[in-house]
Please model this.
Amino acid sequence: MDVIEHPPIFHLPGIPDHVTYTWLVMIVLGALALAASRNMALVPRGVQNLMEVVLEQILGLIDDVMGPEGRRYLPLIATLGLFILVGNLMSVVPGFATPTANLNTTAACALIVFLTYHWIGIRKQGALTYLKHFMGPVPLPLKPLMFVIEIISHLARPLSLSLRLFGNMTGGHILLAIIFFLMGLQGLIGWALSGSGAGAVIGGLGGLIMVAFTVGFLYPLKLLVALLQAFIFIMLTMLYISGAIEEAEHGHEAQHH
Amino acid sequence: MRRTLMLTVLATLGAPVLAHAADAATSGGWVGPFAVIAAGLGMALAAGLCGLGQGRAVASAVDAMARQPGAAARIQTAMIIGLALIESLAIYVLVVAMILLFVQPIK
Model:
């Protein structure tokens, strides 16, 4: 990795890169929020308009998935969604490190979700009812087994939530790094500059194909993955929260890991 | 067919080992080349099987959407969640492969 990877352009000494770029995400989001709310108008324009569209999308999603009770959790869900989205989009800016391509960032987000939905469930239903909720709608002899399985599946949730985001962002990152390595001075461009005629033709053609592949396919793919992973993260967060607040009598039809 | 496959697998497994045998004594362990093979084979298996699973899921979802275009939005949401859950299994293998390749816990 160190051979083929260029360090990001801003590097604060002594501070890991993902922390630096998490601060950048915070600055971007804070500036957007300030710009959107400084001169609020009844007929929104500019940044206010943009942020209202984004928030309305998230609100529509919450209404679809969680029903009328869900709007209370908008701050948590929208904050996570915007943070992860802007963090993911840093992966398509050349020379930036991606905060969400580091397991520490994603594990922090996933742990927040894990602790929050259990806390919401306990506060909503009481600790005993919430624990009973784990045993599921099965006959009495099967309940202890169900309890253990449910505990394991709940513990697997933050693991899969964090690893999914981390793996997707890091996978795209490695793919791009390898493509750039193949294009670089030791690869096609080096071949094109090597001086021989055949090298110039093959290296130039191959380089053009690689550039077209990167710009036409890889970058759109990375944009899509960035949007999709942020969407999936908040979608699963909503499902977990609505699973925790639903009444125990309903059973849990919506089982998700 | 099967014999060819087995020979290919054996050759794939054997070649780096034979190539490595010469300098294994000097440069340390045997785990390194096998870790690279395991990462590659594991990722290939995971990607292929994950593609099969996702293909089945998308096929059913498109089928359902064609039958009931009115419910397309809800089916699509459910499909995307399902795809994410299937894909996370392949992502686990990717993480394990990256650990094998870059962290190298066992030398």
